[in-house]
Amino acid sequence: MQTPVGFKCETCTGRTAAKGGGSRRRVLLAGGGLAVVLGGLVVSQVIGGEGRTTGGSAPAVSPVSAERNVQFEGADGLTIGATLGLPADAAAGDDLAAVVVLPGFGPTDRDALYPPSTGPDPLYRDLSAALVDSGTVTLRYDKRGTGQSALAPGDQLTFDDLVTDAAAAVAFLSERAEVGSQRIAVVGHEEGGLVALQLAASDPRVASIVLVSVPGRPLVEVVADDFRNSGHGEDVDDLESVVASLLAGEDLPEPDALPASVRGFFPVGQGDYARGLFSIDPVALARRVDVPALVVRGERATGISAVDAEALVGALGDDAQALAAPDAGHTLMVTDPTEGAAPARPDASEHGGSSEHAGPSGSGHRDDDALTRIRDFLASTLS
């Protein structure tokens, strides 16, 4: 079930578990998608299908001043569905600052994450609202494979495709008459932060970046630590063996040929995508970036730790700042502490991971101070 800091098993919260409870390190198969759940992160990619992959629908009405549904062309000509947020009275020639919001791991569209068993957590919509209300143009989009960016069944994915999509989003904004061509930043959440790092290192149009809950270590290290901290250190050898074979160029084995303990971390038929994710060295990416950066994490997050943030800030250099939100979780959500708390890393044998959204009926709210700090950082770097 969902708790203020992540997913916990029913028995851990003092509630009775439902029959047929979750399996170990669960794999979500919904709407044609695949999501791998680990402590603090949902690593997934939707393989095809229409609409959102799981969870409920995000609210249809946005609090921002004006929004338009738009489209742009991503990698391999894929049509990407997006929302353009415009400040009130924005007009051609205004030379406004602009921000692209890049979605994270798991089933995500332009508005929200869709954690298993809860309603949507509209982090991206809330970020956009805060920025547009301060006079910034925003663009947020459905990650390829979700919503209006649907893939055909069987289409292959790569991390490079995600970077190309992000570059296309920046290009779309740079061509808007309301936007100053040298005043574009990127905000990346989780996997979107890794995309932002690679994009900022190669695209001169990116003036600054914000990284929210972004790994500062290779993904295999994050997952291995999750195994150890959840009491399943015996599975680390299996995990590292499969990843080593994958990175050596071997094909991803069929699911039945993988050790049961790690099977869920490797998307069926998506060996190139998995290889790309597990081969990323976030520190190496960060060292190539020479624009101002803000590294943000919630101290109650179950996956990304101070170790990750410190590694990124150190690699990004003197123009990097760190922001730790003490009461917030993975999506900068603050929840009522009386609703319960999870350990630093939930037991992956019974828990999932990702956003700490309290659910549609919960008492959670986005950390206003964190949103304000993000807004102020972007205003100062895009002025």
The number of helical runs is 9
Give the oligomeric state of the chains in this entry, treating copies of one chain as homo and distinct chains as hetero: single chain
Q: From the coordinates shown, what is the CATH architecture?
A: 3-Layer(aba) Sandwich
CATH topology: Rossmann fold
Strand order of the largest sheet: 6-7-9-8-10-11-12-13
- What can be said about the biggest beta sheet? 8 strands, mixed
Question: Approximately what portion of the residues adopt beta-strand conformation?
Answer: 15-25%
The CATH superfamily title: Alpha/Beta hydrolase fold, catalytic domain
- Which residues form runs of ≥5 with pLDDT under 50? 1-64, 340-362
Question: Could you state the order of secondary-structure elements as H and E?
Answer: EEEEEEEEHEHEHEHHHHEHEEEH
Please identify the top-level CATH class.
Alpha Beta
The N- to C-terminal Cα distance equals 43 Å
Features:
383 residues; Rossmann fold; 8-stranded mixed beta sheet; 9 helices; 15 strands
Care to describe what's here?
The protein is α/β, with parallel strands linked by helices and 383 residues long. The chain has one domain (2-49, 62-381): Rossmann fold (3-Layer(aba) Sandwich). The protein is built from nine helices and 15 strands. The strands form four sheets. The protein has an eight-stranded mixed beta sheet with strand order 6-7-9-8-10-11-12-13, with helices on both faces. Strands 3-4-5 form a three-stranded antiparallel beta sheet, with no helix packed on it. Strand 10 (179-189), helix 3 and strand 11 (206-212) form a beta-alpha-beta unit. Helix 2 crosses helix 3 (191-202) and helix 4 packs antiparallel against helix 5 (236-247). The radius of gyration is 19 Å and the shape is globular. Mean pLDDT is 78; it is low at 1-64 and 340-362.
